[in-house]
Amino acid sequence: MNFNLQEVTQNIISQIGFLILLIMVIRALVAYTREDWGQFWSGLTLGICCLVVVFFGPQLQTLARGLGSAIFN
Description:
Layout: H1 5-34, H2 37-55, H3 57-72
Protein name: Stage III sporulation protein AC
Transmembrane segments: 12-32, 38-57
Keywords: Membrane, Transmembrane, Transmembrane helix
């Protein structure tokens, strides 16, 4: 049996990020209907950041490792 804990962890993190994305989009839509522009823009911005992390997570991880090794080595 081939059990890879790293893949399971990545899947869980992606699912949590996607749930946060949905929550922030819903909160942004509610703020839009109430015309609360500060909460709308902050919710939309955080939702977009979660979207980037969810869809580009492995690429961001590779980029962070590359930058870290370039700085600290």
